[in-house]
Amino acid sequence: MSSLEVFNPAALRAALVGTRFPARLHHFPSAESTNTLLLEAAANGAPEGTLYLADAQTVGRGRGGHSWHSAPGDGLYVSVLAKPSLQLREALWISLATALAVQSAIKSTTGLSIDLRWPNDLLFAGKKLGGILVEAAVEPDADATLRYAVIGIGININHESFPPELTSLATSLRLATGHEQSRNSLLIALLRALDFELTQLEAEQPELPAQQSGILAQQFGILERFSAASTWVRGKRVRVPEQGGYCGITAGLNAHGYLLVDADDGTQRTVLSGGVRDES
């Protein structure tokens, strides 16, 4: 472990007064997966704002079942429970809003400007700095309304090195800045920013027919803000593994936040499952 800093739950709760998180923060020295634990708690009625924080994850999971290197004490591994009034088709907005919160928190605490690879990867200098995993449950109604969403965030903070197979692919805030970073400071900034972003999503959801909700997202800016914050949304040559695999140029987001790609075969395709990679 390169970092001597430990999480201070009491100080974190005090710093988060005014958000949805301070009364529901749970800290674990080690956990298999904070998302797995919180999904179980959510299914058993845990309230919104419940937060699980771990110093290390032994079975960390990413989008598509991918795992990652999780050194004790070096990273940030946190999951929060949100209950926004959204339909399942709009659940991707939660990932986009979370990515914006992470980007803002890293900028304010380290000065680094990170890139966002749609929909959930955090990048610096082309290397992966962390990721987001949102797992949702749906109400049994005709509108497929979200019951809750567990938002998992993993960030490489004070890693000084990575296993050989990850060296060319991954980085950390310490490697990027050249000095150790405060996990407590970053977590506070992140949760404040995430609370703001979730509040914005809720404020953008007046009672309107489902077909109008995508238009509202564009009007209120979540899609525009993510597009401005990511170099991957427009004009990026990418390789997409789904639909048999294809290459093309990214062409923005649709009303529900999915990535559009002008494929080499002349068609415009909608990317549904992530996994987009640079093909330039």
List keywords for this structure.
280 residues; alpha+beta; BirA Bifunctional Protein, domain 2; SH3 type barrels; 7-stranded mixed beta sheet; 5-stranded antiparallel beta sheet; 7 helices; 12 strands; 29% helix; 26% strand
Describe this structure in words.
This protein is α+β, with helices and mostly antiparallel strands. It has helices spanning 9-15, 34-43, 92-110, 173-177, 183-203, 210-220, 222-229, and strands spanning 25-28, 51-54, 75-82, 115-117, 121-124, 127-138, 146-156, 234-240, 246-253, 259-263, 268-271, 277-278. It has two domains: 9-203, BirA Bifunctional Protein, domain 2 (2-Layer Sandwich), CATH 3.30.930.10; 234-280, SH3 type barrels (Roll), CATH 2.30.30. It has seven helices and twelve strands. The protein has a seven-stranded mixed sheet with strand order 1-2-3-7-6-5-4, sandwiched between helices. It has a five-stranded antiparallel sheet with strand order 11-10-9-8-12, with no helix packed on it. The longest helix is centred in the C-terminal third of the chain and has 21 residues, at 183-203.
